[in-house]
């Protein structure tokens, strides 16, 4: 398997998806379990990289804070719909639209119609989770497609057992580009690690900026392998070989 080469450790900006990459997926968004070593691993790497470590996720920044505390140097939440470029900075939000109240009301109705389905609200969009209601997958997509039929400001994205409605312009590629314009990321070579279709924009952007992009299943195997690789890098102060090419 041909994988992108890792840039020199000291020149890297490390950009990490969260769910399915750093943490194992769970039946519900709030049901994930955090490896107790993970925050210390991230904090050590953040310090070794001069602060240039960011979580790039579809989750709200407040959720990342609740799960990982101050370990990341920066967070791009909601697929680039919210940024905090350094731990002590305020959250910044690009000028993007919010979904109409009628859409949220319909999403609530849809979730209630399928026991086990979950509506996840975000500042700039929402997601309908059907992991515990697999029969809702097709119905949710059809209903959301009908809902957005005449609107060009939002689109529907698939992810792990969910459909997400988010504004056009909020994607992880744009998030990577925005992070690399700010200290301490500017001038570094980005390494983006993700596991899902929503992460592919981030991988492409990292490569376009001279760095590397890796899918968990191709380069590592599973989130536990990503965590082990990051821990080894933190202990060494340098990259270890990627597990799938070691």
How would you characterize this protein structure?
With 246 residues, the chain is of the alpha/beta class. The chain has 2 domains: 11-24 and 33-94 and 170-245, Rossmann fold (3-Layer(aba) Sandwich), CATH 3.40.50; 101-167, Alpha-Beta Plaits (2-Layer Sandwich). It has helices spanning 38-48, 61-68, 101-113, 137-147, 172-179, 200-208, 216-219, 223-236; strands spanning 12-16, 53-56, 74-77, 82-84, 118-121, 126-129, 154-159, 162-167, 189-194, 212-215. Helix 1 crosses helix 8 and helix 5 (172-179) packs parallel to helix 6 (200-208). The chain is globular and about 50 Å long. The chain starts with 11 loop residues before the first strand and ends in a 10-residue tail after the last helix. The model has no long low-confidence stretch (mean pLDDT 94).
Helices and strands in order:
Layout: E1 12-16, H1 38-48, E2 53-56, H2 61-68, E3 74-77, E4 82-84, H3 101-113, E5 118-121, E6 126-129, H4 137-147, E7 154-159, E8 162-167, H5 172-179, E9 189-194, H6 200-208, E10 212-215, H7 216-219, H8 223-236
Parallel strand pairs: 1-2, 1-9, 2-3, 9-10
Antiparallel strand pairs: 3-4, 5-6, 6-8, 7-8
Helix pairs in contact: 1-8, 5-6
């Amino acid at each position: 398997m041909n994988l992108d080469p890792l840039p020199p450790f000291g020149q890297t900006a490390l950009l990490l998806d969260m769910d399915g990459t750093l943490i194992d997926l769970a039946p519900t968004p709030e049901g994930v379990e955090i490896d107790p070593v993970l925050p210390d691993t991230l904090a050590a790497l953040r310090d070794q990289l001069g602060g240039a470590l960011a979580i790039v996720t579809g989750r709200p920044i407040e959720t990342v804070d609740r799960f990982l505390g101050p370990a990341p140097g920066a967070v791009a939440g909601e697929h680039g719909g919210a940024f905090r470029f350094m731990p002590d900075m305020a959250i910044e939000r690009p000028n993007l639209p919010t979904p109409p109240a009628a859409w949220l009301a319909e999403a609530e109705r849809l979730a209630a119609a399928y026991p086990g389905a979950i509506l996840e609200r975000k500042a700039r969009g929402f997601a309908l989770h059907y992991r515990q209601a697999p029969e809702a997958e097709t119905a949710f997509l059809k209903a959301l497609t009908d809902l957005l039929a005449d609107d060009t400001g939002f689109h529907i994205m698939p992810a792990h057992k969910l459909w997400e409605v988010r504004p056009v312009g909020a994607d992880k590629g744009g998030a990577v580009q925005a992070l690399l314009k700010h200290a301490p990321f500017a001038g570094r070579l980005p390494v983006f690690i993700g596991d899902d279709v929503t992460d592919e924009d981030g991988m492409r952007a990292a490569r376009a900026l001279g760095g590397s992009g890796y899918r968990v299943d191709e380069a590592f195997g599973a989130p536990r392998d990503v965590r082990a690789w990051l821990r080894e890098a933190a202990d060494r102060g340098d990259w270890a070989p990627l597990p799938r090419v070691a």
